[in-house]
Amino acid sequence: MSKLAKSLVSFFVLLIVAGGGFFYYMMVPTAYYTQITDKGTEIKGTFDNKEEYVQYEYSQAGYDKKGNEKTLEFMTHPDLGRPFKQDAYLKINVTRFKGENSYEEVQKSEIPQQALEKLAEK
Q1: From CA 86, how far away is CA 104, in angstroms rounded?
Q2: What does the alpha-carbon distance between residue 46 and residue 88 come to, in Å, rounded to a whole number?
Q3: How far apart are the first and last CA of the chain?
Q4: Measured between alpha carbons, how far is 115 from 51 in angstroms, rounded to an integer?
């Protein structure tokens, strides 16, 4: 194999490894935990088929499993049609690419200890 061919193969292998690392860095979510403490801000809208919907927008602190704080900006899904339950605990998945991209209600017992301690301080 010539030097040029070896160089090209090495370059493409490096490119694939770097691309995979970048994809992982941007797309793998980090879970943050928060507790709903207000009703959020109501936002009304209309779907393309002229059907109306209501969403609720929130901006509040969330904590990862190590207790690191992040301000989370998230809203309810239009199908929910109501604010989140008062005092409910949420797990919100955050990626560097899309930001807050999913949520689910969790029980207090499912929250990592350091995040739970930070939530109790609020």
Answers
A1: 14
A2: 28
A3: 64
A4: 39
104: enclosing H helix or E strand: strand 99-106
Half-sphere exposure of 85 (CA within 13 A, CB side): 8
Tokens 């301690």, located at residue:
117
Q: What are the E-state strand segments in the chain? A: 30-35, 41-46, 52-63, 69-75, 89-95, 99-106
Q: What is the pLDDT of residues 9-38, one digit of tens each?
A: 787 788 787 777 776 666 678 999 999 999
pLDDT, tens digit (0-9, with 9 covering 90-100), for 87-107: 999 999 998 777 777 899 999
Nearest to 58 by CA among 36, 80, 89: 36
The model's pTM is 0.76
Distance CA 41, CA 103 (A): 17
d(CA 33, CA 26): 20
57: closest CA among 84, 35, 25? 84
